[in-house]
Amino acid sequence: MQSAKKTVTCGNEVVDPARLINLAKSQVDYILGKNPLGMSYMVGYRAKYPEKIHHQ
Fold first, then answer.
1. Which Pfam families match (predicted)?
2. Is residue 28 domain-resident?
3. Does a structural domain hold residue 54?
4. Please, where are the H alpha helices in 1-56?
5. Parallel, antiparallel or unpaired: strands 13-15 and 8-10
6. Is 41:31 a contact under the CB 8 Å cutoff?
7. Residues of the chain with pLDDT under 50
8. CA torsion sign, 3 to 5 to 8 to 13?
9. Cα 10 to chain centroid, rounded
10. How far apart are CA 41 and CA 37, in angstroms?
11. C-alpha span between 10 and 38 (Å, rounded)
12. Fewer CB atoms inside 10 A, N or C side of the chain?
């Protein structure tokens, strides 16, 4: 998308590739521990992660 210089329209807002990449990176960072709890949501990743997993 970035090399093709394309954008995405979401409602009335135009989103460029750089913004989408930054959003994706921030979401991954959150899942891997850059969040208020400082906890990784990926089991076994980093020192602090969920130990009692409950699947439904």
1. Glyco_hydro_9
2. yes
3. no
4. 17-31
5. antiparallel
6. yes
7. none
8. positive
9. 18
10. 10
11. 31
12. C
